[in-house]
Amino acid sequence: MKVDRPHEGAFSVHRQKLKCKWEDVERYLAERPEFDDSPSTRAEEPPAEPTALELYNLSQETYRRILRHELELALQAPKLAYTYRQAAEAVGISEGLLRGQVREGWLNPVYIASKPIFTVDELKRWLASLPGHPD
Q1: Which helix (H) or strand (E) covers residue 117, if one does?
Q2: What are phi and psi of 28, to 5 degrees?
Q3: 101-120 pLDDT per residue, tens
């Protein structure tokens, strides 16, 4: 990959059709001096480990944007309540199974107007009440 427009952080892959069959690549490269990778043309010292910027061809601005986004996610306030979908995902079950637990009275949502939400404490209480849960 290479950065075509580093100021926009857009990536593209430059693809070309091989000029020979895949099985003949070694011979094709050996016949062309511009692709010479013999030990005499290589540097004696191994190259230094590439930095993240070099490895991914990221501009510094793109790298900063990624770090800023990751820091914002890490510093967000913890969730206090979940919708049905979010609660099912957080607990690792289907939304239908979660709804069944509510119908049977094992799990109790609280309501904001008519919207049911599940507090973290209620989800933890419900999980602790399940059979086989270590006390």
Answers
A1: strand 115-119
A2: -60, -45
A3: 999 999 999 999 999 999 99
